[in-house]
């Protein structure tokens, strides 16, 4: 026979060692002492545990079993008393690390909007404060308590108080931490007018990049590139946040090129070459990028990860505009840029066509997509 006891079994057995009880008495004591705050024992599970302990020979009915199962009084057997004593000694000295689910939530939180994290932690804080008030009220109703019961309530209150303190501190950090956001740091570059072309001077910016070619709607290499970029970008974000510097993962961006620029106007996508990329804060080093790539590679088989590189790009003087609508509706705007605005202002191409995808196409209707169209230029 196994000598191990679950937490629920040890709790019920210990209450029966204290004195013989039937199911309703066990339920009353468990409720009064706040046992459910530190062990999972529902009303129905009490009878399940009683059955298990009986079958193991650890408890027995005190008399002829009643037809009403809930009124059958149980007492420990000699074997049950001995096992309860051994298990209790072990429980007093054994460290059991807590694994609250909130830690999983915090590990995944960088993928959520800031407001969702703050809302979740605020709700948790309110629930913890309510639970602590309930525990204190339950304790006060039964005062004075025996030393063992006092110690149990002390522990429960201490754990709740510690959790409240941790949640308050974490919530404060989430509220105060200044996250770097490239769209805010370089607002003029990421929020151009949708009516007119504007001229901007683009400084050196750091990116993670993947090169490729072909129609982005059908080429597997394009899908692999986007997946690799986001995987590495979020891995970098998580690592940087752990070190105390957080940032918002930037939008997907693309440099597009072809021997004949007219293919962008005619939408001959099979002739396009591209570099897909996501911006980085300047504190993210090349070594950090390589470490993140290695981490993602261990989890995901993606050929684009081997091609991903950190890169610094300086575009200089550019003309840009905000395009509203589907990607395939960019043609009139590009025609205006190539064949009217540039010649009218004595400008010509000086680098790759650049697009910044401010909207998520998976969640945004094509007519509402927002895309920055940018072209590096120089005087003719």
UniProtKB/TrEMBL annotation:
Domain GyrI-like small molecule binding, first and last residues per copy: 196-377
Domain Transcription regulator PadR N-terminal: 12-83
Gene3D superfamilies: Regulatory factor, effector binding domain (3.20.80.10), Winged helix-like DNA-binding domain superfamily/Winged helix DNA-binding domain (1.10.10.10)
Protein name: GyrI-like domain-containing protein
Organism name: Actinophytocola gossypii
Taxonomy of the source species: Bacteria, Bacillati, Actinomycetota, Actinomycetes, Pseudonocardiales
